[in-house]
Amino acid sequence: MRMGASFYNEMHAADGSVRPHYGGFAEWLDSTPPERIARRRAEADLAFHRVGITFAVYGEDAGTERLIPFDIVPRIIPAAEWTALAAGLKQRVRALNAFLKDIYHDQEILAAGRIPPEQVLNNGQFREEMRGVDVPDDIYAHIAGVDVVRAGEGEFYVLEDNLRVPSGVSYMIEDRKMMMRLFPELFARHKIAPVLHYPDLLFDSLGAVAPKGVERPNVVVLTPGAFNSAYFEHTYLAQQMGVELVEGRDLFVRDDTVWMRTTQGPARVDVIYRRVDDDFLDPLAFRKDSMLGVPGLLSAYKAGRVTLANAIGTGVADDKSIYPYVPEMIRFYLGEEPLLNNVPTYMCRKAEDLAYTLANLADLVVKEVHGAGGYGMLVGPAATREEIAEFRKRLEAHPERYIAQPTLSLSNCPTFVESGIAPRHIDLRPFVLSGEQIRMVPGGLTRVALREGSLVVNSSQGGGTKDTWVLEA
User: Fold this and answer.
1) Is the pTM of this model over 0.90?
2) Which end of the chain is more exposed for a tag (fewer CB within 10 A), N or C?
3) For 231-256, what is the mean pLDDT?
4) Domain identity same for 69 and 196
5) How far is it, in rounded angstroms, from Cα 94 to Cα 330?
6) Where do the Circularly permuted ATP-grasp type domain residues begin and end (predicted)?
């Protein structure tokens, strides 16, 4: 089953004509000598190398770092389309935050039978330690990266919600800076909404959720260290916000208060933007062998003496086994109909869904419920018979670990590849910030699958990025 018989092209209509919002760019592309574009693309690669914008690779090439390929054909979104998309994203994040508050307190949605309790309470990402813990302004997911795709006739679908430590926003910002530097004339021709103020919005959102009584909160970014795949982003955001980048060894807890070691003596820490997974945050509460966390951090957090962004336990809301229930969360908590659609999803823990999945493996995408980064998944139409047979065994052995979805006809966008300009499939990760209010910069990270025919856009799987332009009305 493939959703949509053809691929929606972001730049060209079905008859080959250029869509109106791409008109100015198409004229520029036609009038610009290919040699100039080639020179600018080479300049971009050199500049990204110089700045150190890389992504660490795990798996077969463990220990290596890749430059994330950057494409100069932007993904352009008209103002009205963005307004509708942003409204749906904000609605979704409001409901997810309400769900997280509920399951760690009264569990009304479970009592009402809207979500099977075992799906939440037995989930590996549910943190019993968070039961009854109040967090500032009831915000659990301060930073959400929601993956959105366009399929079929151009309708947007939410592919997944990233609420733990969503990454990629630094590439969004650097892609914009690069386009402005290489092609300033394009920005003179178009009214493009800005994104470079994201670090300011992030800093404001983090400061707004400081513990009560703290007027000038000390915010830090907690990183696992230089070997993390997104370390560039950790350093980048700390520098852009003007806050300290710290590792677990730089912090300590005394009297349920978190302190940072400095050359002037201990300095109190009020808000931690943590890029460390739950399991490694506090060796006294979670993994005892963790060298990345801060002993006693959970105790300080429970005492309301420090704010963690995102909150401990947010992973249960972005788990792929919970994803099918997000539309129901919107109805239950907000009393509204979802503005954005989910992708139809088969939950393999259900006998009938498992039977359908096993009978249609060649046509479906099957994902591990805890998987990320494009790992641990089967893209049926692109898989060999041997790969499908091997995956069938894994699915039959542990069906509860998997969901299946139709193979989406992801929209494509013209992209510079070795053979010239050719269509490649894309997705979009907008970033939604929750503080005193829910705010977004107009746009997000557009990821592009550079391999011909590939539907996997993840950087870890060889994907690239594009600048995302939201046109102002």
Assistant:
1) yes
2) C
3) 96
4) yes
5) 8
6) 74-449
Peptide bond into 342 cis (omega under 30): no
DSSP 57-75: --GGGTT-EEEPPEEEEEE
- Give the per-residue pLDDT at 66: 61
Residues 299 and 430 in one domain: no
- d(Cα 145, Cα 417) in Å, to the nearest integer? 27
Alpha-carbon 330 to chain mean position: 20
Name the residue range of residue 87's domain: 2-211+306-470
Helix (H, G, I), strand (E, B) or coil at 124: coil
Phi and psi angles of residue 330, each rounded to the nearest 5 degrees, phi first = -60, -45
Residues 426 and 334 reside in one and the same domain: yes
> Is residue 420 predicted with pLDDT exceeding 90?
no
User: Is the same domain home to 285 and 179?
Assistant: no
Please report the pLDDT score of residue 58 as a whole number. Answer: 42
Residue 142 has pLDDT above 80, yes or no: yes
Structural domain count of the chain: 2
User: Cβ contacts of residue 19 below 8 Å, gap of 6+?
Assistant: 10, 11, 12, 13
Facing residues of 145 across strands? 162, 431
Whether the CB-CB separation of 370 and 364 falls below 8 Å is answered with no
Final residue before a domain boundary, out of 305, 340, 373? 305
Between CA 210 and CA 218 the distance in angstroms is 9
